[in-house]
Amino acid sequence: MKLLLPALAVTLAAPAFAQNTVTLYGVVDEGFDFTNNVRGNKVYELQSGYAQGSRWGLKGTEDLGGGLKAVFQLENGFNVNNGALGQGTRMFGRQAYVGLASDKFGTVTLGRQYDSLVDYLAQTTANGNWAGYLFSHPYDNDNTDNSFRVNNTVKYASPSFAGFQFGGTYSFSNDTNFANNRQYSLGAQYANGGLLVAAAYLQANKPGATTGGAISSTGDSNFSAALLRVFGAGVNYSFGPATVGFAYTNSYITQPTSTVYAGAITPAAGTLSNLRFQNFELNGKYQISPALFVGAMYTYTRANFNATTGKVSPVYHSVGLMADYNLSKRTDVYVQGGYQHVGGDKTGTVLDVAYVPGAADVSSNRNQLVTRVAIRHKF
């Protein structure tokens, strides 16, 4: 009895010192897409992961005491139609990290993670919040739809100070040339009641130059270039059942050679020195009932295409409409439409024809429409 009572006391006290949680979660998003013009042809297809990327993951914490916790997350992306791995066939291509979280001092994590554009700014856009892929800005030039994650990354996220929070990332090149395919970003947000204001900045040196660097050449980089620099700010305001938002982003790319969405973007004559996209987005969402919402987005994008043969300025008009109905707490059905018109100057490259992110391929002319009917289940 003398030995049993102390042992029982230690057993009962153990949860006070170490509480562990591990959660399995996921999203399965599958639907039917119709594109009116894919290099001159209509396309009907089943596609996976548009409103949200299809995924499953594990995340967990261990209480280390004194307000300090160990944290981890492993998140896999996959294609429902064929079971293939996503994000360049990576096992945990969406996220893979481990770190420490403090109630007072914030969270530090190490691994493959989201940058500050995704963490802070994207939530003020339609595509980065409630709509997904089809509502992205042209070629997802600002990464608000998470075209790439950043490898070899140290991330810091502060605790909330009366609604204000900030953070940043640094991604190592893991190369003998320290700056060859590295990345860093900063972001901040302020949330108070129905108001959300956010801003972020990212710079990547030689994104896509290597497979093992910050932005990998396999299944990640939205542009292969010498430099990618993105900054922007946005605001959302909710009042009653309505939310309205505005976001501005500016993406500057030096010596770009290609985009993962449309291939080579160099002109037939001369070389492309730099490319800039300025995106001005207005979005809105209305919660008709607890089960049903409708949303809309319009983005005006002005590009500056600076080649050795001269500078031209194409413009892109992107429109998106969506309705979503919840069948239960975990299952919903939705319909979406995305339309793009390209106007302004011609560059003499594939950038002159329309491409709605998520379409099977580029259009044969300056217009493209994609519609989608889908079901999504969360667990």
Quick summary of this structure?
With 379 residues, the chain is mainly β. It is built from two helices and 21 strands. It has helices spanning 4-17, 116-121, and strands spanning 20-38, 41-48, 55-65, 68-77, 95-102, 106-113, 150-157, 164-171, 182-192, 195-205, 223-224, 227-239, 242-254, 258-259, 263-264, 272-289, 292-307, 310-312, 314-326, 331-344, 367-378.
Topology:
Elements: H1 4-17, E1 20-38, E2 41-48, E3 55-65, E4 68-77, E5 95-102, E6 106-113, H2 116-121, E7 150-157, E8 164-171, E9 182-192, E10 195-205, E11 223-224, E12 227-239, E13 242-254, E14 258-259, E15 263-264, E16 272-289, E17 292-307, E18 310-312, E19 314-326, E20 331-344, E21 367-378
CATH secondary-structure class: Mainly Beta
Instruction: Give the total of domains.
Output: 1
What is the global morphology? Answer: globular
> Which spans have pLDDT < 50 for at least 5 consecutive residues?
1-17
Return the structural class.
mainly beta
Radius of gyration, CA atoms, in whole angstroms: 22 Å
Q: CATH superfamily membership, which one?
A: Porin
Strand content range: over 45%
Number of helices: 2
Tell me the span between the first and last alpha carbons.
Answer: 47 Å
Biggest beta sheet attributes: 16 strands, antiparallel, barrel
CATH fold naming: Porin
